[in-house]
């Protein structure tokens, strides 16, 4: 539980203040009582319990001692049926306190909270209601903080009922068992034919409206708790998450801001506000709030929010958890650098989305009476990895239909025996001849299988349905896709043609990116567009290059070329553009750069263009040409078509001459050769003008005194039906016998 230690100490100290009889001077308080208070204040709950147990043995008529002991034990006690020792001791202590001070609202409230943990909800409701009535009749008997705790416990009672109706539907025909796939367990059709299975829910009757009374009672109770004590973190968190869950973000924002003002050193106001901002698409503000919250958080809480193991495959997660703090921080930084969807913005939208998921899961799936992070529950783990389901269906559970009749009856008898092993067991609303409870289906797409959870009535914890394939589905999904994230803004494609050339030395590669900013899709009118190129090196994704600028543009495509000089290696580049509306365009790919050595025959990437025209009489490289690059690699059937490339590492004879042959061919996606012809002046110079065929070949003898020979051709495709084509150019060195090939894929559009 996220706030349990602080609440336990605060609640215990408030018990002290609220129960000390007016006639008892502070100096006459038993020494063991004062010792227990100081131990609780220091966070040593076990020592405090030992002191209180000793005190109640020595002074059986000291009500505050019994009350404090019962309250602390109630806070520590769990819901688990067989784990009843602390619940039994807590009830004995609280009933003794009430025997000594009848109708004390504090003891009644603590006993009501205990009854809730024992699943005695009617008794819990009666006790909490009576405690609230007494507190309102005699408000001086309880300080504001304890009135807040009383209302908080009432809110939890209503919340239990509300959660049983949230997303509740009536779909009686959903097949629990299907003979044709029974080997896959309960709801096997969900896993073998998910689309057919999900169709049963399309006409389901919505029953969630029957929980509105509980919802209103819950919200009212949490509000009254905060009115009594604006610093009550439990009431703040429970109220906040339900407002957020229902999309009431403006009210949730106001609530978080008030809590920040009242408890400025608490991380929860900032973390909750970060969740609100992320839900409303304000990622940069959410990033600030999350970071501030983690700065304020104790080390354990900060580590929980930094933990990336749920997002990794099991083997990598195991490696991450074995690392020391420095190793973990490095892995976290690498993961977030790689996953950042838009380097143009100051924050990382995916990291923000992750923190928002953890915050939501912690708030929605936590139980204020258990020491488990909501994000670490079985539902929370799925939520953190894959986000909110597209649809949630909650069905009345009939456990007798999950297994064979004999197996179901044995399971039911075992459950009843477990409940009855608790001496405080009287009635249990969740038990019935059908097993009671709920089946909860999380759907991430009509054609996808659901994660299936089971829960008992009035119990928050839900787990994968054991008799189904759900847990295995989660494990398989993690192996295939450990996590899925989306952004709060639209991301469009970013057209570009990439080409690699030799640099000023054979160890340098020049990476050219001929991009086209899709301003026609990013802008509604003449406005500014932020654009940038980011380059990262190696497995650690270390940023080595950044170029950002702002351009003014009409709503039409804008050509933009980048050229970066790099050493050989593996890189990732990200071309980005962002309009004022928040829409973005991104092209992110890995690229491997190999040096163009003097001693090895090589060709640059082929650059496809509309036209290639020399700027000077004897050009020596691409910058000596006016190249109108086709940045989308898309041609209309009648568009001009040209190609530029460079040849490196040619062998020369004694006179410094190189002799090589060029063979050009074009094929479609099926491998069929397409007729092409070389046109223009260069075709005449090469003796190819007017020739057409599946392959065009020419030979050149050139003086090779530099480090490259530029080549270009203008072509016409004789067969230019719409579709994808591959241009292939083979260069053979006649002197060394070496051969290299360059290829480029392009598309011919349908002009109809």
Features:
single chain, 752 residues, alpha+beta, Serine Threonine Protein Phosphatase 5, Tetratricopeptide repeat, Immunoglobulin-like, 4 domains, seven-stranded antiparallel β-sheet, six-stranded mixed β-sheet, 24 helices, 40% helix, 24% strand, disordered N terminus
Which structural category fits the helices and strands? alpha+beta
Low-confidence stretches: 1-27, 404-434
CATH topology description of the largest domain: Serine Threonine Protein Phosphatase 5, Tetratricopeptide repeat
CATH architecture name of the largest domain = Alpha Horseshoe
Helical amount = 40-55%
Walk me through the structure.
This protein has 752 residues and is an alpha+beta fold. It has four domains: 4-165 and 215-362, Serine Threonine Protein Phosphatase 5, Tetratricopeptide repeat (Alpha Horseshoe), CATH 1.25.40; 169-206 and 387-488, no CATH class; 492-595, Immunoglobulin-like; 598-752, Immunoglobulins (Immunoglobulin-like, Sandwich), CATH 2.60.40.10. 40% of the residues lie in helices and 24% in strands. It is built from 24 helices and 27 strands. Strands 15, 16, 17, 19, 22, 23 and 25 form a seven-stranded antiparallel beta sheet that branches. Strands 18, 20, 21, 24, 26 and 27 form a six-stranded mixed beta sheet that branches. A five-stranded mixed beta sheet has the order 7-14-13-10-11. Helix 4 (63-76) runs parallel beside helix 6. The longest helix is centred in the first third of the chain and has 22 residues, at 144-165. The relative contact order is 0.07.
């Amino acid at each position: 539980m996220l706030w349990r230690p602080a609440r336990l100490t605060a609640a215990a100290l408030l018990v002290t203040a609220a129960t000390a009889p007016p006639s008892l001077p502070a100096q006459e308080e038993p020494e063991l009582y004062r010792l227990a208070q100081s131990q609780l204040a220091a966070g040593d709950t076990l020592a405090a319990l030992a002191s209180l147990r000793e005190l109640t043995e020595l002074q059986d008529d000291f009500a505050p001692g019994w009350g404090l002991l019962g309250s602390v034990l109630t806070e520590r006690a769990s819901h688990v049926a067989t784990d009843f020792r602390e619940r039994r001791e807590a009830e004995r202590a609280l009933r003794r306190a009430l025997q000594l001070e009848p109708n004390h609202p504090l003891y009644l409230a603590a006993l009501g909270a205990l009854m809730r943990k024992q699943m005695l909800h009617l008794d819990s409701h009666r006790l909490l209601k009576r405690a609230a009535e007494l507190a309102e009749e005699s408000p001086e008997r309880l300080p504001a903080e304890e009135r807040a705790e009383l209302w908080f416990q009432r809110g939890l009672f209503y919340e239990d009922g509300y959660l049983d109706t949230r997303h509740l539907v009536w779909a009686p025909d959903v097949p629990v068992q299907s003979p044709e796939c029974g080997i896959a367990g309960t709801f096997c059709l969900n896993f073998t034919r998910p689309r057919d299975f999900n169709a049963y829910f399309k006409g389901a009757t919505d029953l969630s409206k029957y929980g509105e009374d509980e919802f209103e009672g819950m919200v009212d109770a949490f509000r009254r708790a905060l009115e009594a004590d604006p610093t009550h973190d439990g009431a703040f968190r429970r109220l906040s998450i339900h407002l957020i869950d229902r999309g009431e973000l403006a009210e949730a924002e106001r609530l978080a801001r008030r809590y920040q003002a009242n408890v400025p050193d608490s991380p929860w106001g900032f973390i909750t506000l970060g969740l609100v901002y992320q839900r409303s698409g304000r990622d940069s503000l959410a990033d600030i709030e999350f970071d501030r919250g983690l700065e304020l958080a104790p080390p354990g809480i900060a580590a929980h929010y930094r933990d990336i193991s749920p997002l990794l495959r099991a083997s990598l997660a195991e490696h991450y958890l074995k690392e020391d703090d420095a190793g973990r921080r490095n892995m976290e930084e690498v993961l977030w650098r790689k996953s950042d969807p838009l380097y143009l913005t100051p924050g990382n939208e995916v990291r923000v989305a992750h923190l928002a998921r953890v915050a939501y899961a912690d708030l929605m799936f936590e139980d204020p009476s258990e020491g488990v992070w909501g994000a670490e529950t079985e539902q929370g783990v799925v939520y953190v990895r894959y986000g909110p389901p597209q649809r949630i269906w909650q069905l009345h559970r009939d456990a007798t239909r999950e297994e064979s009749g004999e197996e179901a009856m044995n399971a039911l008898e075992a459950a009843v025996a477990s409940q009855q092993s608790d001496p405080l067991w009287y009635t249990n609303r969740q038990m019935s001849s059908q097993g009671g409870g709920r089946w909860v289906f999380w759907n991430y797409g009509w054609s996808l299988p659901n994660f299936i959870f089971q829960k008992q009535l009035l119990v928050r914890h839900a787990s994968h349905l054991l008799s189904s394939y759900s847990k295995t589905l989660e494990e398989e999904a993690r192996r295939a896709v450990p996590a899925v994230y989306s952004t709060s803004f639209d991301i469009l494609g970013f057209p570009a043609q990439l080409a690699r050339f030799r640099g000023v030395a054979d160890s340098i590669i020049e990476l050219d990116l001929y991009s086209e900013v899709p301003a026609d899709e990013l802008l509604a009118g003449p406005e500014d567009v932020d654009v940038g190129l980011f380059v990262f090196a190696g497995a650690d994704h270390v940023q080595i290059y950044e170029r950002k600028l702002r351009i003014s543009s009409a709503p039409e495509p804008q050509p933009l070329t980048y050229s970066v000089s790099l050493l050989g290696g593996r890189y990732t580049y990200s071309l980005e553009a962002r309009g004022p509306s928040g829409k973005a365009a991104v092209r992110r790919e890995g690229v491997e750069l190999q040096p163009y050595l003097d001693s090895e025959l090589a060709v640059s990437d082929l650059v496809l263009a509309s036209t290639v025209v020399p700027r000077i009489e004897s050009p020596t490289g691409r910058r000596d040409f006016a190249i109108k690059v086709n940045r989308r690699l898309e041609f209309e059937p009648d568009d001009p078509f040209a190609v530029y490339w460079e040849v490196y590492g040619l062998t020369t004879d004694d006179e410094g001459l190189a002799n090589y042959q060029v063979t050009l061919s074009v094929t479609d996606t099926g491998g069929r050769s397409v007729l092409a012809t070389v046109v223009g002046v260069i075709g005449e110079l090469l003796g190819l003008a007017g020739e057409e065929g599946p392959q065009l070949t020419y030979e050149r003898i050139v003086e090779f005194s530099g480090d490259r020979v530029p080549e270009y051709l203008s072509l016409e495709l004789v067969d230019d039906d719409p579709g994808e084509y591959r241009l292939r150019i083979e260069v053979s060195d006649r002197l060394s016998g070496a051969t290299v090939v360059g290829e480029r894929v392009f598309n011919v559009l349908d002009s109809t």
